[in-house]
Amino acid sequence: MRICFLCLVLTTCISESLLSAEPPKVWIYSDISDPTLAGNNKEGTINDPDDVSAMAGYLLVANEFDTLGIVVASTHRDEHATTPDQAVWADQYFGDAYRNEVAALNESLDGYPADITFQQSCIKESAERFDPQNDYASLDSYDTVAALLNRAEQDDVSPADPIHVLCWGSLTEPAILVKHCLTTGKANVLNRMKFIAHWTNSSLHQGTPAHPEHVANCREDAKACAYLKSVAAQSKIVYHECGAIGQHGIVSGAPSGKDYYEAFRTSRLGTLFVEGKFAYGSVDHSDSATYWVLMPGFGVTLDDIPADGTNTPAVERANEQTFRKHSRRIHDELLRRSQLAAGDPAD
């Protein structure tokens, strides 16, 4: 068997460099829900299943992060008023697969937490949207917003070691959190968070130069989106807008064809990654851009994305092209970890 020594050196250096420092603290707000629940979108589901693939990919690289919370079904679908508890579904769907394979992952890479837990969003059943006239002084009705606030107030979180709030869908819950903090004199707590949003603005894709906000994740709760953008423009929060670089960089630049992705099916997490949303010959996990920017060595980092919520065409185009160039490397890393999760040591 021939072994690529340079590849081994590069992989080892990347892994060691990532794990040598404190891993970034992460909190995820996702509109993910059980894809077997019938809905009216083009996939026949309630919510776009791309977050299923993005979540499976996240679990494969979970040792690179300090996962503080994952909120699921943060969405505005009337059907969810009566659907089962989506945290229970996520624990069974993702949690069981993760717990089954975490020991094998730790044997090779180390640093994976023993378990990953999920919370059901406080807006899942109400489908509530952000009201700019509400001061949100009380969070009694918003337990998953209060949970993030409480975690951000703990001593191990600071502006130097903040919580990275990954926004994979609408911005309702982050907007409620920010409004609450500004209303109640907790602006200092906002310095302990960085918001990283997937495609809530783009002049190049869906949106236009005149209306970059005309994209799905912004329209989903337009008032929440506008509020956070305005607060970011005033430097009251750090808000990194990824735009469509996940979709048109990582996904568009991915290896194509079923043969490549069949190799993921040796592990449960790899199978979830492939089966979440396989379209046009590859996996749609575009929201994953929000966590790949936290991992050095894979193209785009937060230093490449303005912190004030802006996303100029030049910046988005450059980051899109960079991710496209690194897409094969990203997918090969996911495949390597998928094989390790199955107990199959990489060559």
Helix-strand blueprint:
Elements: H1 5-20, E1 25-29, H2 50-60, E2 66-72, H3 86-108, E3 119-120, H4 143-152, E4 163-167, H5 172-183, H6 187-190, E5 193-197, H7 216-219, H8 222-233, E6 238-241, H9 245-251, H10 258-262, H11 268-276, E7 278-279, E8 282-283, H12 289-292, H13 313-341
Parallel strand pairs: 1-2, 1-4, 2-3, 4-5, 5-6
Antiparallel strand pairs: 7-8
Helix pairs in contact: 2-11, 4-5, 5-8, 9-13
Protein architecture, described:
InterPro entries: Ribo_hydro-like, Sde182_NH-like. This is Cellulose-binding Sde182 nucleoside hydrolase-like domain-containing protein. GO terms for molecular function: hydrolase activity, hydrolyzing N-glycosyl compounds. The chain is α/β, with parallel strands linked by helices. The protein has a single domain, classed as Inosine-uridine Nucleoside N-ribohydrolase, Chain A (Alpha-Beta Complex), CATH 3.90.245.10. Helices cover 42% and strands 9% of the residues. The strands form 2 sheets. It has a 6-stranded parallel sheet, sandwiched between helices. Strands 7-8 form a two-stranded antiparallel ribbon. The longest helix is centred in the C-terminal third of the chain and has 29 residues. The chain starts with a helix and ends in a 6-residue tail after the last helix.
Q: How large is the share of residues in beta strands?
A: 5-15%
Helix tally? 13
Backbone structural class? alpha/beta
Strand order of the largest sheet: 3-2-1-4-5-6
Which architecture per CATH? Alpha-Beta Complex
C-alpha Rg (nearest Å) = 19 Å
| CATH first level | Alpha Beta
How far apart the termini lie comes to 8 Å
- Counting structural domains, the number is 1
What is the string of helix and strand elements? HEHEHEHEHHEHHEHHHEEHH
Report the strand count: 8
Could you tell me the CATH topology label.
Inosine-uridine Nucleoside N-ribohydrolase, Chain A
Main beta sheet, described?
Answer: 6 strands, parallel
Morphology call: globular
Sequence stretches where pLDDT stays below 50 over 5 or more residues: 1-20
Mean pLDDT: 93
Helix amount: 40-55%
